[in-house]
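Ticket #4471: structure output looks truncated?

Reporter: J.K.
Steps to reproduce: submitted the chain below (277 residues) through the standard prediction queue, then opened the result file.
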Amino acid sequence: MELRPLGATGLRVSPLGLGTVKFGRNQGVKYPQPFALPSDQEALALLDLAWDLGINLLDTAPAYGESEERLGRLLRQCRRDWVIVTKVGEEFHHGVSRFDFSAAATRASVERSLRRLGVATLDAVLIHSSGADQAILEQEAVLPTLRDLQQAGLVRAVGMSTKTVAGGLQAVECCDLVMATYNLRQREELPVIRAAHAAGKGVLIKKGLLSGHLSNLTQVDPVRAALQLVYAEPGVSSIVIGALNPVHLRANAAVAEWALGERCSTRRCGHNELSGF
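Returned output as attached by the reporter:
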């Protein structure tokens, strides 16, 4: 896969990223089927496969249970030039999420992520929104604290995983990148993606495959339709998907390659977007 710039951060990411929530958490998630956490051997094999498929972006968070800690341990056995995105603001303990956007909690979270992942600098840190995007950006200490940590060289890029259009648009103004929801059923945040593109900011897409609920749609090939939709937007840097099954990951990567090739072919024909979306 050809790497794409993540806005003006200097980071270059694969158009398909691997989400690792399933590496560390299987409680309180919205996937259609229950699942067991993978063994270290299974997770390591998935990381190796992802790299072989051209994926260099990994997404994790303290809210993903053991994901950060496990990922750091596994990456010591799978040393590659990964771009790792993590988050601050939400933690998950004993089946319950807790939010804290204070300066102390933000600093402690970043320092813990550095230790867990075994790195000197975090590539990108996103504010893990509780849903009150604008209040968090305007009233909490999390963003200025992340900027201080960025200035100190502990964080390379700062962004927000938003939940509202207004919050996403505000994050575009004050952050380096934004993570937005965009899929076949949820297209409300398209203005955020386009505003970020116009501003030269990075865009990561979450829930692009509807968290595993694509099979409920009527399209003959919903994965292909979903990735066509996402890649039709030139502002998208990468779509993050979760996978535990190597067959599914390989298949999704193949569809992504096809969708990207289709988009390039369409653009050469003089069209701005893929027809039908």
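Triage note (M.O.): checked the attachment and the full token line is present. The longest strand covers residues 122-128.
Status: closed, working as intended.
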